[in-house]
Amino acid sequence: MANITLTTLNKIKQNKEKFATLTAYDATFAHVVSTAGVEVILVGDSLGMVLQGNDSTLPATIEDMCYHTTCVAKGNQGSLIIADLPFMTFDTPANALKNAAKLMRAGAQVVKFEGGRWLCETVQQLSRNGIPSCVHLGLTPQSVNVFGGYKVQGREEQAAQTMLEDAKALEQAGASLFVLECVPSPLAQAITESVSVPVIGIGAGAATDSQVLVLHDMLGISPGKSPRFVKNFMAEADSIQAAIENYVAAVKSRTFPAAEHEFKA
Ligand code: KIV
Ligand code: NA
Q1: Digits of tens for pLDDT over the chain (265 positions)?
Q2: Ligand in closest contact with the CA of 24
Q3: With contact defined as beta carbons under 8 Å apart, do 65 and 45 qualify?
Q4: Which pTM value belongs to this model?
Q5: Which uninterrupted H or E stretch holds 112?
Q6: Does 112 carry a binding-site annotation?
Q7: How close is the Cα of 254 to the center of ligand 2, in Å?
Q8: Is the CB of 212 under 6 A from ligand 1?
Q9: Active-site residue flag, 181
Q10: Distance CA 28, CA 56 (A)
């Protein structure tokens, strides 16, 4: 696979095609994921739960994120690497800039952070300094204590309108990508059609330009009950490589996500 860049992803969107995104946190899985045809690897702060065993993403630190980004960059075979800014590392544009630089030096090509319109200045600052932004909207897990649990966001008309306006404002500020997590499919579709940059969805229906899942969830090895939007791709595969290839094919052919994985209005 030729090296994937933002230009590649923008062309995929313009052609009304889909690209696949998955998390990875180490060199071995990064190698498998990228050779299986996944265009984007996300070094997510979900590692605070999946790797570290915490019950939220809040304990993950910038040092943890840099360590795992370094590992992923070594195994990666040409996928685009996005890394998360963890809890409380982007409270001001200056802190975001300082911490995003650490992730870029560790091997990230895009930096992701959670929030809304208040991040416009951060996006501008990063962009001026050569750091592309991916803004995570909807269910933003670092705010689980504000939401009072992991709940679908944007169900009320006012909240949906705010999310749509936030996305437009952030694109204007220079955001290169969006992640939409756990939002009703019609809202995800409206946002995907309202911005010209690619939108990656998780629990956001089939209309987004890409899908992402936590690797351990789609391999069926996360303990406990899976969220509605997760599909276990190991159920019909005889190797991890095959499961990930089937995921890529399902995203590109629009057979994943199916109706059973989405949140209706
Ligand atoms: O941390 C993560 O894995 C994420 C995805 C679930 C979008 O942010
Ligand atoms: Na995350």
Answers
A1: 689 999 999 999 999 999 999 999 999 999 999 999 999 999 999 999 999 999 999 999 999 999 999 999 999 999 999 999 999 999 999 999 999 999 999 999 999 999 999 999 999 999 999 999 999 999 999 999 999 999 999 999 999 999 999 999 999 999 999 999 999 999 999 999 999 999 999 999 999 999 999 999 999 999 999 999 999 999 999 999 999 999 999 999 999 999 999 999 7
A2: 1
A3: yes
A4: 0.98
A5: strand 110-114
A6: yes
A7: 24
A8: yes
A9: yes
A10: 25
Long-range pairs for 214-221 at CB < 8 Å and ≥24 separation?
214/23, 214/44, 214/46, 214/50, 215/22, 215/23, 215/24, 215/25, 215/29, 215/33, 215/50, 216/50, 218/22, 218/243, 218/244, 218/247, 219/243
Name the residue among 154, 144, 97 with its Cα closest to residue 124. Answer: 97
CB 198 within 8 A of CB 210: yes
For 70, other C-beta atoms within 10 Å of its C-beta total 17
Q: Quick one: 51 exposed, middle or buried, by C-beta within 10 A (0-12, 13-18, 19+)? A: middle
CATH number of 6-261: 3.20.20.60
Residue 89 Cα to ligand 1 middle (Å): 16
- The structure tokens listed for 65 are 């994120």
Residues 6+ apart with CB under 8 A from 260: 228
List the residue whose alpha carbon is closest to atom 3 of ligand 1: 44
Q: What is the 3-state secondary structure (H, E, C) of 139-188?
A: CCHHHHHHHCCCCCCCCCHHHHHHHHHHHHHHHHHCCCEEEEECCCHHHH
> Does residue 201 contact residue 208 with C-beta atoms inside 8 Å?
yes
Tell me the one-letter amino acid at 198: P
* 244 closest CA partner among 9, 30, 11, 5: 30
